[in-house]
C-alpha cells in the first residue's frame, strides 16, 4: 500500500516539525501515542485518492491535507475516549491515551493535535497559497460548528437528537472534508465531492454500529457494546441488525454512484468496493449478537 | 475604548459566522459563555495596537488575527478550568463553563473555539492571502507544541519544570503570538515584536501570581490562592511578594524599552504603562497575604 507508507511518512514529518528543545516530553509522548501506530487511515487515504483522481499537482499540499484530516480525527478519538465521554480504556487494540497518559495529557494532546493539523496546512501552502483559505474553510467546517465532528459529539449532550443528523455530524462531516480537501489540494472544485464523502461517512458509521453489536473487541481494537451501555443512538438500535446491513449496502452503492466524472474514477470506485468488504465482511448477516441485552435491543428495534 | 468595541464586534461576528441551522444549541451556548461577556481582552488589544503601530492596511485581517488570538485564549481558559486541571467553579466573576454547562460541553467548547480561531483567519485572508501562512505559523506556535500555551499547561503534568520555561510557554507564548500576528496582519515583519510580547506575557503572569496571593476573588473574577492549593509553580512562591513585585516592574520597563521604532511607538508605550497600572495597582506592596498558609509560603520562598 504505497499510499499508507506515504501517509505514515507525512504524519511522522508533521509531528517531527513541531518537536524541538523545550517541549514537555510527556505531552509529546501522548501525541505520538494518539497518532501511531496506524489506525485504518481511511480518511487520509480518501484525501490522497481524490487528489489523485483530480490530477494531483502539489504532493506536499495533498500530504498536508491528508495529515490535517487524520490529526483532527486522532484528536477527536482522544477526546471521545475521555472519562466524561466514553471513558474508553482501549483504542486500536491498546490502552487509550487517557488510560496510558492520564486524563490531563489526553485533553492537551487533543488540543495540540488540532493546532498541529492547521500548522501542517499552513506550512505546505507555499506553492499554491491561493488554495489555503478554501482548505481552511473545508477542514474547519468538517470539525467545528455548526455541523462538524465536534458538533456531532455535542449532540450527545442534548436532550433530543435525530439519529441521521447526529451521525452525519459525528462521522459524515469529516469524510466530506476529506474528499473536498483532496480535491482542493489538487486545485479542483470541492463541491462535487461533498455528497460522496457524506454518504461514505454515513456508511462507515453504520458499519461501526454493526460491529459494535456483532464484533469482538480484539478485531475492533476497542470495546464493543458501548452504544448500548452508554445509551447512544445507533443504526442497529433503530433499524435492527438486518436493517442496518441493508442500509450499509445501500449507502456504499450510492457512494460508488456518486464518484464525479474524472480520470481516476475507476480506481476510486475500486477503493470504495474494497472498503465496503473490509468494513462489513460478507457473511456478517449470519453472526448474531452475543449478549442477551444486545440481542434484545437489536430485535426490539 | 473604541478598540474594545471593535474587538467585541469582531468576536460576535466570528461566532455568528459559524452559527446556523442544525447546530447543537447547548454547545453554541457554552461557546458564547466562554467568550462573552468580555474579559480584559488584553491579547486582542495588543494585536490591534501593534497592527496600528505598523501602519494597519487590512482591518478585516487584523480583526481576524485579534479574534483568533482571543478565541484561543478563551479555549485555553475553558480547558484549564476542567475538573482534571484547576476544577474552577468561577471565571470572570461568574460560573466557569464546566460549572455552568458541564464537563463534556467544556471539552467540546474548547475544541470548537480552537477550530473557530483558524476558521476566522482563513475567512479574512482574501485581500492578502500571502500573509496567511505566516499568520498560521505564528498562531500555531503560540498555542501548540513545542512551546505554546498548550505545552505550557502540559508542564503541570511533568515531574520537573523550570518556572521561567513554564510561565513563558503558559502565558508568554500567546502574548508573543499576539504582537507578531498584529504585525503580520499589517504586512510587517513579525520578529521585532517577539521579545516585547514575551516580556509582556511574563509580566502579566507575574502579576497574576501576585494577585493570586494578595487579591480577592471578587476583583479577580476567579478563586485566589489556587497556585498554592494546586502546588503550582509561582513567582511569589519563588521570589516572595516583594521580589515578585520588583520582577514585575522590571519586566514592564523592559517591555516599554522593547517597542520597535515605528510611527505608533509613543501610543504603544502609553498602552503598556496603562496595563502596568491596571495589572498591579500602586500601593499593592502594602497588602499582605490573607491566609496563614499563603503568608508562610510567600515568606519562606
UniProtKB/TrEMBL annotation, chains A, B:
Presence of keyword Lipid biosynthesis: no
Gene Ontology biological process terms, A to Z: isoprenoid biosynthetic process
Listed CDD domains: Trans_IPPS_HT
Pfam family, one: polyprenyl_synt
Cofactor or coenzyme needed: Mg(2+)
Keyword ATP-binding found: no
UniProt keyword list: Isoprene biosynthesis, Magnesium, Metal-binding, Transferase
Gene3D superfamilies: Farnesyl Diphosphate Synthase
GO molecular function: metal ion binding; prenyltransferase activity
InterPro entries: Isoprenoid_synthase_dom_sf, Polyprenyl_synt, Polyprenyl_synt_CS
PANTHER family per UniProt: FARNESYL DIPHOSPHATE SYNTHASE
Similarity-based family: Belongs to the FPP/GGPP synthase family.
Designated name of the protein: Geranylgeranyl diphosphate synthase type II
Organism encoding this protein: Sphaerotilus mobilis
Organism classification: Bacteria, Pseudomonadati, Pseudomonadota, Betaproteobacteria, Burkholderiales
Amino acid at each position: 500500500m504505497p499510499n499508507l507508507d506515504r501517509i505514515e511518512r507525512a504524519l511522522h514529518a508533521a509531528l517531527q516539525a513541531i518537536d524541538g528543545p523545550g517541549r514537555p516530553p510527556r505531552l509529546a509522548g501522548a501525541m505520538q501515542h494518539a497518532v501511531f501506530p496506524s489506525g485504518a487511515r481511511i480518511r487520509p487515504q480518501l484525501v490522497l485518492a481524490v487528489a489523485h483522481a483530480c490530477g494531483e499537482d502539489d504532493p506536499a499540499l495533498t500530504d498536508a491535507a491528508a495529515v490535517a484530516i487524520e490529526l483532527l480525527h486522532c484528536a477527536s478519538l482522544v477526546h471521545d475516549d475521555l472519562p466524561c465521554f466514553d471513558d474508553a480504556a482501549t483504542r486500536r487494540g491498546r490502552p487509550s491515551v487517557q488510560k496510558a497518559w492520564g486524563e490531563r495529557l489526553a485533553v492537551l494532546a487533543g488540543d495540540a493535535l488540532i493546532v498541529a493539523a492547521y500548522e501542517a496546512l499552513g506550512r505546505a501552502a507555499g506553492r499554491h497559497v491561493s488554495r489555503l483559505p478554501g482548505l481552511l474553510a473545508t477542514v474547519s467546517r468538517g470539525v467545528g460548528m455548526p455541523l462538524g465532528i465536534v458538533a456531532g459529539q455535542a449532540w450527545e449532550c442534548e436532550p433530543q437528537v435525530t439519529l441521521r443528523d447526529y451521525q452525519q455530524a459525528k462521522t459524515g462531516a469529516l469524510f466530506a472534508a476529506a474528499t473536498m480537501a483532496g480535491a482542493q489540494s489538487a486545485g479542483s472544485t470541492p463541491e462535487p465531492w461533498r455528497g460522496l464523502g457524506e454518504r461514505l461517512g454515513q456508511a462507515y458509521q453504520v458499519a461501526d454500529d454493526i460491529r459494535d453489536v456483532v464484533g469482538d473487541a480484539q478485531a475492533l481494537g476497542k470495546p464493543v457494546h458501548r452504544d448500548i451501555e452508554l445509551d447512544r443512538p445507533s443504526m442497529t438500535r433503530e433499524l435492527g441488525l438486518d436493517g442496518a446491513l441493508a442500509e450499509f449496502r445501500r449507502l456504499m452503492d450510492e457512494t460508488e454512484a456518486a464518484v464525479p466524472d474524472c480520470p481516476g474514477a475507476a480506481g476510486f470506485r475500486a477503493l470504495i468496493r474494497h472498503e465496503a468488504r473490509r468494513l462489513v465482511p460478507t457473511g456478517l448477516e449470519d453472526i448474531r449478537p452475543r449478549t442477551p441485552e444486545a440481542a434484545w435491543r437489536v430485535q426490539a428495534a
